[in-house]
Design goal:
- The protein is an alpha+beta fold and 381 residues long.
- Among the domains are: 56-67 and 300-372, conserved putative lor/sdh protein from methanococcus maripaludis s2 fold (Beta Barrel); 72-81 and 217-297, Efflux pump adaptor protein, beta barrel domain (Elongation Factor Tu (Ef-tu), domain 3, Beta Barrel), CATH 2.40.30.170; 117-178.
- Helix content is 21%, strand content 36%.
- Strand 17 and strand 18 (317-323) form a beta hairpin.
- Helix 2 packs antiparallel against helix 3.
- The N and C termini lie far apart (113 Å).
Length: 381
């Protein structure tokens, strides 16, 4: 009997132990398998807190002092050195046109011949009146030799009348010279807007009030270049500048800086500069738009850093200066670019170390381990 009781007790104890184990497994939260930190790839820390006690290696380069010598492409426009619209000074009928578009002419050549019948009739009338006045004056002068025959006042009036008619005749003769439209300088006729038989006249007068011919001097051209305000200090009078035109992409031409506007256009923030271009072969033409390789020069040396070293944010433009392994933010102003380098102006000196790849995530006061790098050669400076 006692043995049977012991067996029942052992069974009850086994059931109680099994129930406790089930309850403990149900209350436990399953856990994700853990992975060793050594098996995950390391991530680059982009933001380094100021005063970090763990310096990180950063590449730095020295600030260099160089003479800026660079060229930038600028658009330009070729214009004739001289140009004029030829119009008649008096009203008349076109009798003949001796030139056409593209004709080369010399100074003094007769381009257009006009006729004005009314003007010719006025001249003949004036000639007849002058002849009559001369006869009258001659007779009065002869009669005045006899005292009391001719009053002295009548003789003076006849003389003044004679002089007035002479002046009027000379004026009409001068006006007849305007019936010929002549060339004021050597050049090329680029426009023809008239034909024989047309009635023409000066602007505001009767007939056609427009240009009859357009004359341009193209053996000598003006090349106008709008130089941006930032490069106005590099304009040197007498400098030779190279340019090219789309019509001859394999050839380059040259011009000489001759005229400087000395005033910045408030709309384009550029200063117009004119260059003289000699065009004896007449390959270049007025109206072409060349690409000008404008030279940028500085009279003194300036400081350069890699373009990647300059950090531009919405608030600041700065470089990361490294002194005693600590980072400082130095505000700078950008200048001209020369290859991979950029000109900067600020509280820097030649030889100062700056971070080669600047970023605002490296805060001021960060401790780093500088790794010096050489500035890549820039053959264009």
């Amino acid at each position: 009997m006692s043995g049977k009781m012991i067996g029942i007790g052992l069974v009850l104890l086994g059931l109680i132990a099994a129930g406790v184990m089930v309850l403990s497994n149900e209350g436990r939260v399953p856990q994700e398998p853990t992975v060793s930190s050594s098996s995950t790839p390391s991530l680059e820390i982009l933001e380094i807190p100021a005063g970090s006690t763990q310096p990180v290696p950063v590449e730095v380069v020295p600030v260099s002092s160089q003479h800026l010598k660079e060229t930038i492409p600028l658009p330009g426009e070729l214009l004739p050195f001289l140009s004029v619209d030829l119009s008649p000074k008096i009203a008349g009928i076109v009798d003949s046109v001796n030139v056409d578009r593209g004709a080369s002419v010399r100074k003094g050549d007769v381009l257009i011949q006009l006729r004005a019948p009314e003007l010719q009739a006025q001249r003949r009338e004036a000639e007849a009146q002058l002849r009559a006045a001369n006869i009258t004056y001659t007779r009065l002068q002869s009669a005045s030799s006899t005292p009391g025959i001719v009053a002295g006042n009548d003789l003076e009036l006849a003389q003044h009348h004679q002089e007035a008619l002479t002046a009027r005749l000379q004026s009409l003769q001068e006006m007849e010279k305007y019936l010929r439209v002549v060339t004021p300088f050597d050049g090329v006729i680029t426009q023809r807007n008239i034909h024989p038989g047309a009635v023409v006249g000066p602007d505001g007068g009767g007939g056609r009030a427009s240009s009859l011919l357009r004359l341009e001097q193209v053996v000598h051209l003006r090349l106008v270049v709008p130089v941006p305000e930032a490069y106005a200090g590099s304009i040197i009078r007498g400098a030779t500048v190279t340019f090219s035109v789309p019509a001859y992409p394999e050839q380059t031409f040259q011009g000489v800086v001759s005229r400087i506007a000395q005033s910045v256009d408030p709309k384009t923030r550029s200063m117009p500069v004119e260059m003289d271009v000699h065009n004896p072969t007449m390959r270049l033409a007025a109206g072409m738009f060349p690409e000008v390789l404008w030279p940028i020069r500085r009279s003194t040396s300036t400081l350069f850093v890699p373009a990647t070293a300059v950090v531009t944010t919405t608030e600041n433009v700065f470089v990361l200066l490294v002194k005693e392994n600590l980072v400082e933010w130095i505000p700078v102003r950008k200048g001209s670019k020369s290859g991979s380098m950029i000109e900067v102006f600020g509280a820097l000196q030649s030889g100062d170390l700056v971070v080669i790849r600047g970023t605002d995530e490296i805060r001021a006061g960060t401790q780093i381990i500088p790794i010096s790098k050489e500035i890549p050669a820039n053959p264009r400076t």
